[in-house]
Design brief:
- Keywords: Signal.
- Residues 170-183, 198-207 have a biased composition (Low complexity).
- Residues 151-232 are annotated as: Disordered.
- Residues 1-23 form the signal peptide.
- By secondary structure, the protein is mostly helical.
- It has a domain at 13-149.
- Helices cover 63% and strands 0% of the residues.
- Helix 3 runs antiparallel to helix 4 and helix 4 (65-82) packs parallel to helix 6.
- It is extended.
Amino acid sequence: MLNKYNLILTFVLTASLTQFSFAKDQTQEISKSCLKDYPVAAGDTDAELINFYNQLCDKGNRKNDALKQELLLKIAQRYQGLGYNLKALEVINQLRSQNVSSRELTDVTFLAGVSIAQNALNQMRSTELRSLTETSYAPAKQLAETIRFAQPTVEKPLESEDESFKSKSNKSSKSSLKSTTQSKRNKSTVSADKPSKPKTVAKTTATVKKEQPAVKSAPAHSGSSPFASLNK
């Protein structure tokens, strides 16, 4: 009885794993009908790319042009990110033929083209051991100059009015303090260099008036002798 139970359990597990593996293989493959519509997908094994193509070829999305264009753009970006630049340009040409234009599409085109040019230059320098010819150097130089003129610029964030006012006030205060300090230093230097004048002491001369004593004159008596007083 136990062996029979184990046998049934093993059969169920095997069937489940088989179905899971089959379902996984189904999601990891692109249908043949989808490959006929999009032959560029032949040989792709990336799960994300296969998922995009499966959505693109789904019957429910065939009439949704906006969704299809969005998926093709994602496919082109994915190709470029994986280094399949020629495939990316092929998908881009398909979108261009549908008059699709966007900044993202231009970025993918530029990145794919630059990567292709870089790979070719590395092939020249490392494997073929040669430099650019005069014919190939002229457009390469023009591209380098155009890239230099188109390089991004980083703008500094603008200060708010309060921060700008505070900054100006601080600068003004520092400038005023510096000017006052410098003025004090200059005055101190001048005072130290200039000799001090001696203080003049006002001398007051007192005028001494000499008073001569008054001489009392004796009254003159006519006919009297000067020795008259002695005789008394």
